[in-house]
Amino acid sequence: MNELYSNHINLNAVTNSEFTYERVKAIADWLLARVDTRPRIAIVCGSGLGGLAEKVQNSMVFAYEQIPDFPRSTVVGHKGNLVIGLLDNVPVVCMQGRFHSYEGYSNALCTMPMKVFKLMGVETVILTCAAGGLNLSFDVGDIMVIKDHVAPLLWTLQNPLVGLNDDRFGPRFPAANKIYNKKLREEFKKIAKDKNIDLREGVYSSFGGPCYETVTELRALLQMGVDAVGMSTANEALVASYCGMKVFAIALVTNKAVIDYDSDNHPFHEEVIETANRRAQVLQELVTEFVKKISF
Ligand SMILES: O=P(O)(O)O[C@@H]1C[C@H](O)[C@@H](CO)O1
Ligand code: HPA
């Protein structure tokens, strides 16, 4: 087995049956035994956005490879640490890098950390990601609050909830029409307004990658009402919501999706990272303020 990957998790396990309640609880307990902090908020840092985790104080940093049964981060711009500590005095657990299905991980494995968070006592999950802007009025650098998603992989057996259901995590047939908490979206928008930071709100889509989308795929998504397209987040949002946690998600528009058949432009990861680095500070400021606000 590739040593980048985890110790004894079955990487090909498509269903969630590999990640039993007991197995996930063992991971949560392993972490809780090593920190004094009891985080109620979890933050997932997307491509190039891991700097937020560096703002966490009194932190304990666990490299993913230290944590039993955790996968490894293999993507540039995803450091691969779980950081537990205080963000402006609010206890948080922060994923400095996430797992993607294009890394060879099943969606059940990609989203397993959400279940760990649930069993650590987390109540709210904040997801961040990089995305290509599809909405014609979007500019590179825009921040979009996600209000819904379209995720074709989740229409298949790659849905992370496929498999025997354990009701201790969530219901067999969870609703998916209210994944992105409206109150949290409103709160975030208020904070941005007070800071004079322009925000977008829209629909995110994820095909899972690793290739960027074809022109025709993007045009179809545009017709469906999609505003930004990425390779992650929807799966995590689904599982976090299924577990009964509140979900808030933002996508940073790191590039423009190319919807002209004859364009010479194309998306590339270096541009994604570069834009993320350029906008990281604003995003960090917004998320830190948001965390403070919702912690009461
Ligand atoms: O991990 P996220 O969704 O933030 O990153 C996006 C999707 C791919 O990992 C990468 C492509 O450039 O950016
Ligand atoms: O254009 C994109 N497509 C998919 N994923 C992405 N992540 C950043 N930009 C993009």
TrEMBL record:
A purine D-ribonucleoside binds at E213, N255. GO terms for molecular function: guanosine phosphorylase activity; purine-nucleoside phosphorylase activity. CDD domains: PNP-EcPNPII_like (cd09009). GO terms for biological process: nucleoside metabolic process. Residues 40-292 form the Nucleoside phosphorylase domain. The keyword Glycosyltransferase applies. Phosphate binds at S47, H78, R98, F99, H100, A130, S232. It is an enzyme of class 2 (transferase). Pfam families: PNP_UDP_1. GO terms for cellular component: cytoplasm. Pathway: Purine metabolism; purine nucleoside salvage. InterPro entries: Nucleoside_phosphorylase_d, Nucleoside_phosphorylase_sf, Pur_Nuc_Pase_Ino/Guo-sp, Purine_phosphorylase. Its EC number is 2.4.2.1. It catalyses: 2'-deoxyguanosine + phosphate = 2-deoxy-alpha-D-ribose 1-phosphate + guanine; 2'-deoxyinosine + phosphate = 2-deoxy-alpha-D-ribose 1-phosphate + hypoxanthine; guanosine + phosphate = alpha-D-ribose 1-phosphate + guanine; inosine + phosphate = alpha-D-ribose 1-phosphate + hypoxanthine. Keywords: Glycosyltransferase, Transferase. NCBIfam families: PNPH, PNPH-PUNA-XAPA, PRK08202.1. The purine nucleoside phosphorylases catalyze the phosphorolytic breakdown of the N-glycosidic bond in the beta-(deoxy)ribonucleoside molecules, with the formation of the corresponding free purine bases and pentose-1-phosphate. Belongs to the PNP/MTAP phosphorylase family. This is Purine nucleoside phosphorylase.
